[in-house]
Amino acid sequence: MENIINTDRWGFKHFVNTSVSEGFLRDPIIMQGMSGPRIMRNGQSFINFSGINYLGWQQDESILSAFCASVMRYGLSTGGSRATQGVCEAHHSLEQILSRHHGKDKTLTFASGMLANMGFINAMTAKFNFSSTSKIDNRDTVLIFDRDCHWSLWKAAAHLKFGEQLLTFRHNDIADLERVLGLVGSKKAIVVFESLYSSDGSVAPIGKIIDLCERTGALSYIDDANGFMVYGEPQRPFYEEFKHINRADFIMVSLSKSIGLEGGAISANAEFIDAFEVLSGTSIFTAAIQPPTAGTATIIIKRLHDDPSIMDNYVYRTREFRQILLDSGLPLNEDPSFITSVLIGNEMKAEHVRESLEEEGFCVPIFRYPAVKPNQAIMRLILHKDHSDADIRCFAELLTKLLKDIPEATGRTPYVI
């Protein structure tokens, strides 16, 4: 007899039908070929301001050759978890270079930055015992989040009781963080924040947050997914903020932005990292980064270390990009980081602007609720190092015109990130 699943019982059929009819849900866009300054969709070329692999490593023949060489040496996968079979030399080398970069004892790599974040929260709030003597209980940990922290951190902390185990402070607000730390008192506290926030491009007051943590005895966890290898050098913007980053107790990085691959890592003192192997759960119970990815990431990190002009040139280019948009009269995010957000507000207008840009051959992402607050929609733009002056000026002129011509609107529109 045919087994028919009654999806109505679970609510999925109703959810999908209503989400599709109201424009909130759609099939993912299928690209033809690789992501870069331009992408192909359905045979049409688009100038792409959506991609996060902005240094174009996958268009670099020497990097592609290095990746292929790693495949031939290490294979496509490790063939098991860290616990059952271990990791290969490529993982070990990557973890060593990250430890040196951050001035920490050890580093643990994960298959993604999201798994790193979730594993950290799991580990720092865990109760676990191997035996009657080998055990740990940190259920009394209090996490203090910047309110704009990434979804992965909020998801990992969803099981914690808000107001007791999980507290928040206003975005980048030192005075409010000090107030919250005063409420925590002598409890074990961890302040969780990002270096550079992905929606509005705002930069955290890193040194001031760590100063406050050190003064109150709280630990500090910084999600450096967006800032890793971009900021921190004296000749680049935000040096006064990023020069303090290695003072954080825990530093998480993503390999999907400046490195252009996939994976995540946490660097910290050895006793934490050794325990995270088991307590994170997202390391021991899943596959590691693919070996060729680990090997190639190490090569890219070394190249960025050895040739700072690569990132210097990119950061300078993003400043030029931002100035062109400002000169066009476009409303932008306050902090001049490489993440450039155009402030639109009305969600339906934002979607109409996106559709109009797409018709003219531009691929741009709109961030809407729940990614941002309701009716505070933004267009987040990531400049690729190979975007031309013509690409930028044509885009700026068109976007300026559309924002003037398209009226504020009401009604439901697709939720697109």
Automatic annotation (TrEMBL):
Domain Aminotransferase class I/classII large span(s) in chain numbering: 72-392
Keyword set, alphabetical order: Acyltransferase, Transferase
The protein, known as: 8-amino-7-oxononanoate synthase
Enzyme class (EC, first level): transferase
Encoding gene (name): bioF_1
Entry cofactors: pyridoxal 5'-phosphate
Native organism taxonomy: Bacteria, Pseudomonadati, Pseudomonadota, Gammaproteobacteria, Enterobacterales
Organism, as annotated: Yersinia pseudotuberculosis
MF terms (GO), sorted A to Z: 8-amino-7-oxononanoate synthase activity; pyridoxal phosphate binding
UniProt xrefs under Pfam families: Aminotran_1_2 (PF00155)
Superkingdom field: Bacteria
EC number: 2.3.1.-, 2.3.1.47
Record InterPro entries: Aminotransferase_I/II_large (IPR004839), AON_synthase_class-II (IPR050087), PyrdxlP-dep_Trfase (IPR015424), PyrdxlP-dep_Trfase_major (IPR015421), PyrdxlP-dep_Trfase_small (IPR015422)
